[in-house]
Amino acid sequence: MDFLLALERPPLVLGVDPRPELHGKDPLADIRRYALEAMEALAPGLCAVKFQLAFFEALGAEGVGLLLELAAAARVFGLPVIFDGKRGDVGSTARAYAEAYLVRFPGSALTVNPYLGLDALAPFLEAARAHGGALFVLVKTSNPGSGFLQDLPVEGRPLYLHLAEALARWEGDGEGFGRVGMVVGATYPEAVAGVRAVAPRAPLLLPGVGAQGGKPLRGPGLLNAASRALFYPGGRPDLEAALKAQAELLKALVE
Amino acid sequence: MDFLLALERPPLVLGVDPRPELHGKDPLADIRRYALEAMEALAPGLCAVKFQLAFFEALGAEGVGLLLELAAAARVFGLPVIFDGKRGDVGSTARAYAEAYLVRFPGSALTVNPYLGLDALAPFLEAARAHGGALFVLVKTSNPGSGFLQDLPVEGRPLYLHLAEALARWEGDGEGFGRVGMVVGATYPEAVAGVRAVAPRAPLLLPGVGAQGGKPLRGPGLLNAASRALFYPGGRPDLEAALKAQAELLKALVE
After folding, report:
1. What CA–CA distances, in Å, run from B97 to A58, A100, B54, B111, B114?
2. Hey, what domains does chain B have and what are their CATH numbers?
3. CA of A178 to nearest chain B CA: how many angstroms apart?
4. pLDDT value at position A211?
5. What tens digit of pLDDT does each residue of A110-145 get?
6. What is the pLDDT of residues A167-208, one digit of tens each?
7. Pairing between strand B81-87 and B48-52?
């Protein structure tokens, strides 16, 4: 499987951000069961499942083991995987992160942080190209304070647009969508339009749909990611409510 | 133990970046043994041990288990811990990362990425304050391409200095060193001086000493980090050579 096939599926990403406090006495076993059920039930209406690495790491080594198990299971359900780790480091360290996610799980995507520069992102792009994967580079994030560095004026434009243009040049020309995707918060729809204008070939991952107040956005290559709103609708694990929430989101996105 | 006590120790950080290919048939067991021996032998001449999370993640859940075990062992040797993860994410996700490292291991530090803004860094500072820890925010990184965003001109100065000044203001006034440290590559000594000038209270973590070509730098609050040069001197695990390399670095740093 190649991650780019996700772009031909319904433009909705299930964000799996497990919260042990919502899962009874044996939280890891309960998270495993619920996440497997949710992925299986929702898969036909999803382009990908996104695992938020922070919540698995907070559960220790067993949590990381569960993450790797769920990532393998997602592929059994035919579901492309996005590892949401916002990783980024220099040279050989970046290669180790690429190894952990893009090489170990061919056809998957990883979210990455651009602050260290293009040379630090290169090992991720190399691994994505070699293993049918993709990266989503943080461009404009969904949080209220994202402007701190991202909106600084660079040659008369916000830094995030300068970055988006540089990433689009880095990807180069070609047919269809490329492997250098970008993260733009659904909470900033005008930023989504601005980034799309300078980076027509980039798949755009839009987190913040639902719980953070972002509305689903329609358009080629726009992947709407809902985490709490879809995985814990009403603030708790509830598969029936998740299916209803998915139907509503898909109505807004594809009808 | 409070991480700030590290500033009263010899200004040398042992970077543990395990490479399984250097460790025979049962690499995890061998890495465990060698890292424990190295920490015990080198501890008296170190201010901290820095674990590069990427290399443990590349080893899967067992690798992460080993990381947590070595972090606990470091404390038994009286050695402050820096988790080198360059983490960073929005709100509740940042809290999950803080939980995984700063709360679970009181008195430890975590490297963090500033691209998402101060609101995204706030949960890390909160956890550091509550648990005797610290953060090291990426300011100017050691890689050759670090200028891509970090050197962009903002009000006539490179972005990284603008960031360093904002972080110094964010930390506030007070006595002695604060909990908002910064990462500045030893490969850019002029950047170290520039950051120190605008952020007099920030502990500065200087990676890139040795293998990346950075020379050790002396000065209050400067923590020199050597990974390959100290953990794998001559390109392989060798405790005797590590002790010699440490003696040479300390000679340059404290005599």
Report:
1. 6, 18, 15, 11, 14
2. 3-240 (3.20.20.70)
3. 21
4. 76
5. 999 999 999 999 999 999 999 999 999 999 999 999
6. 999 998 888 999 999 999 999 999 999 999 999 999 999 998
7. parallel
Token readout for B185 is 């590559």
Query: Residue B82 in 3-state DSSP?
Result: strand
Residues of A within 8 A of B58 (CB-CB) are: 96-97, 99-100
Beta carbons within 8 Å of B109's beta carbon, 6+ residues apart: B3, B6, B48, B80, B81, B82, B83, B102, B128, B133, B134, B135, B136, B181
Amino acid identity of residue A34, one-letter, is Y
Look-up: residue for tokens 């990455």? A112
Please state the separation of Cα B33 from the chain's center in Å.
22
CA distances from B184 to B155, B206, B218 (A): 21, 5, 14
Q: Decide if A204 contacts A196 (C-beta within 8 A).
A: yes
The complex's ipTM works out to 0.97
| Tens digit of each residue's pLDDT (9 = 90 or more) over B148-193 | 999 999 988 999 999 999 999 999 888 899 999 999 999 999 999 9
| Nearest residue to B13 (alpha-carbon basis) of B254, B249, B251 | B249
Quick one: tokens of B184?
A: 């500045």
Among B68, B115, B124, B162, most A C-beta atoms within 10 A, so best to mutate, is B115
Mean pLDDT of chain B: 96
d(CA B5, CA B48): 10
| Model pLDDT for residues A19-40, shown as the tens digit of each residue | 999 998 999 999 999 999 999 9
Q: Is B64 in contact with A68 (Cβ distance < 8 A)? A: no
Structure tokens belonging to residue A174 = 């070609």
Give the active site residue among B25, B50, B86, B140: B86
